Amino acid sequence: MRSNFVRTVAITGLAAAGLFASAATATAAPASAVAAPSASPVGISAAPSCVYLYQTDYIREGQYRSLANARNDCGYTIRTRMIWVGTTDGACFSLAPGQSHGESKPGTRPYVSELRDC
After folding, report:
1. Which pTM does this prediction carry?
2. How far apart (Å, rounded) are the C-alpha atoms in residues 79 and 41?
């Protein structure tokens, strides 16, 4: 029997080098370690630090899913994409100030390691 597992990861302050700070919490089951990504490849830049990324797992129709939601707290429009670990990366999207964009993937293993400019 599978326990009800919830993982929450918040990524804020994405540095220019592509590294991020993260915090993880879990309930009902221990969370596996979420490894910080290495710096972005040469020529690829991380999204600005004013973009907030929230991640969590949930159950929909009996299936576990991983959800990532990016919110633009910048004073200008940004264009970015979610780089997922364990599944395919997201497409580029634009966010006006105050707007959010969410992506969901099946399972509890996938997570967004960084947001990249497009």
Report:
1. 0.63
2. 18
